[in-house]
Design brief:
The protein is α/β, with parallel strands linked by helices. Helices cover 48% and strands 10% of the residues. Among the domains are: 1-6 and 21-65, no CATH class; 68-170; 181-278, Orthogonal Bundle (Helix Hairpins); 288-442, Rossmann fold, CATH 3.40.50.720; 714-889, NAD(P)-binding Rossmann-like Domain (Rossmann fold, 3-Layer(aba) Sandwich). Mean pLDDT is 72; it is low at 1-22, 152-156, 215-222, 587-703, 1009-1037 and 1098-1126.
Length: 1126
């Protein structure tokens, strides 16, 4: 900087008069030097260059695509037309021009120069910018302004006269304005018009210039009578000449005039017919999209969307994929479809919102030439969408799988591999894609029916579940004040709509902490809910553990949080606790008594368990000592020993089913493991020979995940009347077919962790199809009732007035051909069914599936909402209505977060192998699941942050949000309040969405019916520091005893379930069954002993700032259960 200033300060006589600008530049640099130094302290040179590039890209996008660019084009065209009018008026001035001519000319010339340099700057000062015809015209029209200050004789220079004439070419800038029209034919028509007008004005100006009176003194051929003296004469001569008429009253008399006329004729003969032929070709072309193609660039990456591209599906897809929260405004979406775009699709292509990002290509993804037109080799990903309401789901899935395989084959032949996100309808069909050996780790398969029906099933257990998950997997726009602030409950609901799932690395400050502590810290510091973490299994593979509260998180872990935006989630990864390292070195205050007591309880438990074992089992336990702490595996290994005397195939079958579920591949199994593997091999051989029925094998494979019974036919499960059933679940099926994915609807209602199950009544006009019924025939208490929800008599037979929940499924139609009014009318049956059931019982909890989201307004016409978004509807806020369009949102979110689909499967679907996970510490942990509990009476009046920590430490639950009762906050209906603010108050009737690994107690679950008669009361709760939990040595005792109690209780429940299973004792030795029952009684004694010790040792702190909440009085029968919750 100093060298430059010294060099600038030296005299520069050799450049003469142009030294003044350098002096001005030097003064300006000195003035701004302090400003630059301030900014240089804040930003480095690389950061300045980066932000300058960002600014240039945004400026270029604004000039080309935004309304600002369109407005600038209109202003430029208007100024250009004004400059042409001024020039024509100047041709009629004989004397000195008025002053306002001069001011006007300088004004628009300055505007042209400014626009030129702004566009050049946005083009990164590239030389290629000058190759554009519009840039050349801008430069030529700006030259007079740049050179007029250099000489005062510019009026006599022919070059400047010519430059003024070229301003008429700026009329061609109107072409940029008409580019925003929807029709290609219209754009071509306007191009021809502007070309003719601009060429006529330009040639007229040239003729008037070369044929003017000032040429009389220098050209001997000048003819005063035949030469056009005024501009309108020159215009007349140009028109009659270009139209090949040529009356001869005016003709060029100078050499240059004749040259101009010849050029005009040549231009008319060559250029105009060429443009007309193009217009005729466009008019004769059936589809312009059949010939279009796309070429990607680094500045504008793109993705390809193919498959069944419907209007509704693509609208939901674009709305989520191009949402501003994802920060991909430059991303292009190329739609590849074999059909010509419908009228609705054309409306999307022409809309100003998506036009800049959307390209439609008519073609097939099975043809390589069409894939090349989409530039698939440079695509970031390919989405294969499905028509959710097609007539034949299997055919739809097969077609999409073939499309996905074709895309994978082409991608591997060109770029190596590419992410394919496949959307299918039936989950069993995804095996076809997996069996092709084309799937890679980056590919995703979204099963519509599996997720959709599972969410409806979970809605029966947790009202509002579909709304909670739906709002978390979609990006929500900011809610206007007029939509959110009219009622307090609306504000709370809209607050929760702003939260989403995010995956973020954990900072080093969280290393070595338990997951419970991490959940507490993150909520306290950021008000974000942490519900899962990535862990490594025994083989070192990455797994996702949901709510592993006792897990000690290691380094470089990644957590899954519910946060308002990505910026808040990123703050978690940079969180720094200055006392974190010091705390790692300090030992936790456990106390000698806690360690001794834990060891004493472990020894007592083993001795008590060993006293009832057989000799072989006791020898096995003593030999292993403490090596195998997975008590669940030990217990079932003893069960296998008791059953060895029974050689029936059913016994072996049960072992195989249990082995598949419990992952009995642990090392050191010895002879028992070898025996099990031999029995598995023998059983598989028998299955191939047909000795065991396949349906029994399929049923027993899932007995450890669901409440099962012996298979029944539809006739055996048919009932004529359900009036004897109370608090049951009624499923109203469509009138035209069996609902697809029926098993996934009923499976959440028969999960094994449910201590009590509710009867299920399937009310449909026709019996379920055989294929669909075989999958649910083993589930307990599932009945079929012939009837229609449109008939009051059938609704009374189903006893919907006494039902706990009523589910209404939508009908199935083929929407691939006609998507007009049918999309809105397809929900008519569901709406009518809803109204009929509401007339019978207004308090009935309903879950309705809808195709068209706007139809939610017909469910409750009295409930109004000013917003046009469906997720703002009161019916959706309460969880009453659900639309499958959320699954198109999930497809987009899967692209940005590849692990989101795994999270959804665990939280929504669950079951089978998703229930448990074995981490690197060789501990088998149950995956957490979402449940709903009522807010305990002692927590009414708590702040939400106190309520959150109360559930975390006292009940080992992670709270996700609240389900507010009606009339709790001026609300008519219930609503979901996702992650409330820390100061929100817990009220009577509130229910909480929690993630837990065990089914909550009956006292916490309560009833789904909201209670409005209770009165609020204010109490205090003792909260603990994020890293402490209960104070002093009580923390270690509390953790050890609670873990031990949970383990023993799990064993007791598993053994009780098997002892009560149908046919378990048939064919077994009486001694074996008796020993098992003794083992069961021993477990119950262990539970009682643990509860007694917890009551005696774990005491509330004596010196608490506020007394602990007083628990409500319990009946004697509930006293033993309540001791467990201390």
């Amino acid at each position: 900087m100093e060298d430059f200033q010294q060099e600038a300060a030296q005299p520069r006589d050799r450049i003469g008069s142009i030294s003044a600008p350098f002096t001005m530049a030097q003064a300006l640099r000195q003035r701004t030097e302090g400003f630059e130094n301030k900014w240089s302290m804040m930003l480095s040179r690389e950061e300045l260059v980066f932000w300058e590039g960002v600014f240039r890209r945004k400026l270029a996008k604004a000039l080309e695509q935004s309304k600002f660019g369109q407005a600038l084009d209109l202003i430029s065209v208007s100024v250009s037309l004004y400059s042409v009018v001024i020039y024509v008026m100047q041709t009629y001035e004989n004397g000195r021009r008025p002053y306002w001519y001069r001011v006007s000319e300088l004004s628009y010339s300055f505007f042209f120069v400014l626009e030129f340099f702004v566009r050049w700057y946005a083009a990164n000062l590239s030389v290629r910018f000058f190759l554009d015809w519009s840039s050349i015209i801008d430069l030529l029209t700006a030259i007079p302004f740049l050179l007029e200050g250099a000489t005062k004789y510019y009026l006599n220079l022919s070059f400047f006269r010519l430059a003024r004439i070229l301003k008429s070419l700026r009329i061609m800038r109107l072409y940029k304005v008409v580019q925003h029209t929807d029709s290609e034919v219209q754009r071509q028509l306007f191009t021809i018009i502007f070309m003719v007008v601009s060429s006529v004005f330009t040639i007229s100006g040239l003729l008037h210039l070369v044929e003017s009176e000032w040429r009389m003194d220098i050209d001997e051929t000048y003819d005063e009578n035949a030469t056009p003296k005024q501009f309108h004469d020159a215009l007349y001569l140009t028109v009659v000449t270009m139209s090949t008429i040529g009356y001869g009253d005016f003709h060029p008399t100078t050499l240059w005039g004749k040259v101009v006329v010849m050029f005009g004729i040549f231009f008319t003969i060559v250029m105009i017919p060429q443009q007309m032929n193009r217009l005729v070709g466009l008019l004769s072309l059936k589809s312009i999209y059949a010939r279009s193609s796309y070429s990607s660039s680094d500045a504008h990456p793109h993705v390809v969307v193919c498959g069944s591209v419907t209007y509704r599906g693509i609208v939901d897809f674009l709305k989520e994929f191009l949402h501003e929260d994802h920060g991909n405004a430059d991303m292009k979406v190329v739609i590849l479809s074999p059909e010509h775009p419908s009228d609705e699709m054309l409306g999307i292509l022409r809309s100003t919102k998506y036009k800049a990002n959307l390209i439609y290509i008519e073609g097939s993804c099975l043809q390589n030439k069409d894939l090349k037109r989409c530039d698939l080799s440079k695509s970031k990903a390919c989405f294969v969408l499905s028509n959710q309401y097609c007539a034949d789901p299997d055919e739809e899935d097969s077609s999409n799988i073939i499309r996905a395989l074709a895309v994978k084959r082409f991608a591997r032949a060109t770029q190596g591999d590419m992410q394919v996100i496949l959307q299918i309808i039936r989950p069993e069909n995804k095996l076809h894609f997996i069996a092709s050996m084309q799937q890679s780790e980056i590919d995703q398969i979204v099963c519509i029916n599996e997720i959709k029906m599972s969410m409806l099933g979970q809605n029966c257990l947790c009202p509002g579940f579909s709304t909670l998950i739906g709002n978390l997997i979609q990006s929500s726009d900011s809610v206007p004040p007029e939509d959110a602030s009219s009622e307090p409950w609306q504000f709370e609901y809209c607050h929760g709509c702003g939260y989403e799932f995010y995956r973020t690395p954990l900072s080093t400050s969280f290393e070595g902490r338990t997951f419970t502590e991490i959940v507490d810290i993150i909520y306290t510091k950021f008000e974000c809910v942490t519900f899962a973490v990535e862990v490594l299994d025994r083989e070192g593979k990455r797994k996702i553990a949901v709510a592993p509260l006792d897990l000690i998180v290691g380094s470089k872990a990644k957590a899954y949080v519910i946060a308002p935006d990505s910026e808040v989630a990123a703050m978690i990864s940079t969180y720094y606790d200055k006392d974190a390292h010091s705390r790692k070195k300090e030992k936790e205050p456990t106390g000698d008594h806690a360690d001794d007591y834990a060891k004493h309880m472990e020894k007592m438990r083993k001795l008590r368990r060993a006293s009832v074992m057989s000799g072989a089992s006791m020898h096995q336990m003593i030999t292993k000592k403490d090596g195998d702490k997975r008590r669940g595996s030990n217990l079932w290994r003893k069960v296998q020993v008791f059953l060895k005397a029974n050689t029936a195939d059913e016994a072996g079958l049960a072992e195989v089913g249990q082995g598949a579920h419990d992952d009995e591949s642990a090392e050191g199994e010895g002879r028992d493991s070898a025996a099990v593997r031999m029995k598995q091999f023998r059983l598989k051989s028998n299955l191939k020979k047909g000795n065991v029925k396949n349906k029994l094998f399929e049923a027993l494979k899932v007995t450890k995940s669901y409440h099962m019974q012996a298979s029944r036919t539809v006739k055996e499960a048919t009932i004529k009347d359900a009036s004897s059933l109370v608090n049951h679940i009624v499923v109203c099926g469509p009138r035209n077919s069996t609902p697809s994915g029926l098993f996934h609807l009923l499976a959440p209602l028969r999960r094994i962790h449910l201590s009590k199950i509710k009867p299920i009544v399937l009310m449909m006009p026709v019996p379920p199809e055989k294929k669909a019924w075989e999958k649910v025939s083993h589930l307990k208490e599932v009945y079929y009732l012939e009837g229609s929800p449109h008939q009051y008599s059938d609704l009374m037979k189903a006893n919907v007035g006494s039902a706990a929940v009523t589910v209404i499924l939508t009908a199935t139609y083929n929407l691939s051909k006609n998507e007009g009014d049918l999309v809105s009318l397809i929900d008519a049956d569901s709406i009518f069914s809803y109204q009929h059931i509401k007339r019978i019982s207004d308090d009935n909890v309903l879950a309705v599936e809808l195709v068209s989201a706007p139809n939610m307004a017909f469910l409750e016409p009295k409930l109004e909402w000013t917003s046009s978004e469906f997720y703002m509807s009161p019916c959706f806020a309460s969880g009453t209505a659900y639309t499958a369009s959320l699954l198109d949102t999930l497809v987009c979110q899967t692209y940005y977060n590849r692990d989101l689909l795994t999270i959804i499967r665990v939280l929504v679907c669950g079951g089978g192998a998703l229930d448990e996970i074995t981490t690197s510490d060789n501990k088998k942990r149950k995956q957490g699941f979402i449940s709903q509990i009522r807010a305990p009476e002692e927590t009414w009046g708590f702040r939400y942050i106190d309520f959150f920590k109360f559930l975390l430490y006292n009940h080992q639950m992670i709270c996700l949000g609240l389900y507010r009762a009606p009339l709790a906050s001026s609300n008519i209906t219930s609503y979901v309040y996702t992650n409330p603010t820390a100061d929100s108050e817990i009220g009577p009737g509130d229910r909480a969405f929690v993630i837990c690994s065990r089914e909550p107690d009956e006292t916490l679950r309560g009833s789904n019916t909201m209670n409005h008669s209770v009165t609020k009361k204010r109490t205090n709760v003792t909260t603990y520091a994020p890293n402490e939990g209960p104070p002093g040595a009580r923390s270690s005792i509390f953790g050890s005893l609670k873990n031990e109690l949970n383990t023993v209780t799990e064993e007791e429940e598993e053994l009780a379930a098997d002892l009560d299973a149908p046919g378990f004792s048939a064919g077994k030795k009486r001694g074996s069954v008796a020993q098992l029952r003794d083992e069961f009684n021993s477990l119950k004694e262990d539970i009682a002993l643990l509860r007694s010790e917890i009551k005696n040792i774990v005491k509330p702190p004596a010196a608490s700032a506020a007394p602990p909440p007083r628990a409500p009085e319990k009946k004697p029968a509930e006293a033993g259960e309540e001791e467990d919750q201390e």
